[in-house]
Amino acid sequence: MPALDELTPAQFCRFLADRAIRRCYFVWHDETETVNSSHPDLEPLGRWLAAERRDFDRHEGVFVQIGESTGALQGAFVHRTCRGQAAGGVRRMRYETVAEYLRDGLRLSRGMTHKNALAGLWWGGGKGVIDPGPGREPDGRGLRPTLYEEYGCFISSLKGCYVTAEDAGTTAEDMAAVFSATRFTTCIPPACGGSGNPSAPTARGVVRGMEAALAHRGQGDLRGKTVVIQGLGEVGSRLIGLLAARGVHRVVGADIRAERIAKLKRAHTEIELDLRVVATDDDSILAEPGDILSPCGVGGTLNSRSIPRIRAGIICGAANNQLEDPDRDDRRLAERGLLFMPDFLVNRMGIVTCADEQAGYINGDPMIEAHLDQQWENGIYRLSLAVLARADESGSTPARIALELAERRSRELHPIFGHRGVEIIRSLIADGWAA
Q: Which of 69, 241, 260, 274 is 20 to 30 A from 151, alpha carbon to alpha carbon?
């Protein structure tokens, strides 16, 4: 049999089912510096996790279950909870192997640690990942709500060490199904008392990052500029209207959905648009000339293959984990003189809105608007300028400076609850969560 990390998610689910395992976990043990597995049969996968030096960063816990009715592989990844509960969205996506599935959850949850810390939120980093399995694409009334109700029960079983939210492949309606089975979720529909889809505030934050980059380079503001957008989903499509309002001359964009392109062309006649339908593996948009390149699709698009072709001087987008290899690709961008705005620095507004959801609502909420204005030193604009200035002074890169700051902040203990998340994880294990 292939190694566990080489199995497809469906094969891995069968492997677990054959051994009567419905739930399992992998937990970092500080004293021995090893990953403890819930079951002896899973110890090889625990060792594989510990060896994943690029993506596994002493994650406090990885929790997995097979959906009882759907058979879907459902996971919750908890990176670091010094600042509070792990928080981040749940994405639904198909993966070729268990390794891909785990790597995505590990990288995304670590990114949320840094994003939440830079935003000044008293939350740690977490992420959810669901692979629905072959032939189980949840559509229509029936399987889809069941999938997310199952996930809500799964989140409840973790007793609050992870708070979930909307992400790629999920909607506010899906989060309502999650909410029906757990209180540990945000981004639920406004009718249920939530903040709904977080894409609009996320797009606003990315625009502020663009403006900071232009100001740092002495290139003025967005008026008259050309912006290239890879991925015209929920955030990428909202960028068009925001950029038009700021006087952007031209937007070039690409997406795999023809109906989305047609809709955007009808909706935006106030700006020059060049929008294209591309195949899933077509990244030619990254080589389009422009002032700013905005990756707003999946992660890992900035890599050894794409970076030599980039023709925009500034890169600032909404996608998480844009660098395929954070160290190598950050250096490649710097060597080319390209200014990369770290995603975890500029795409915070979705999780900021989620955090605000727990404290009630105010029209034009000043606690949200502060992240977007030019006065607050920890707002996206001023913090970005500070990171860029520090990078120039030190000869480092913005991504490295932002990461160092995020690492320091992420280890600050919650002022009331301390490192409660890791205590919850210990209690889950002591109570036989995976039994």
A: 260
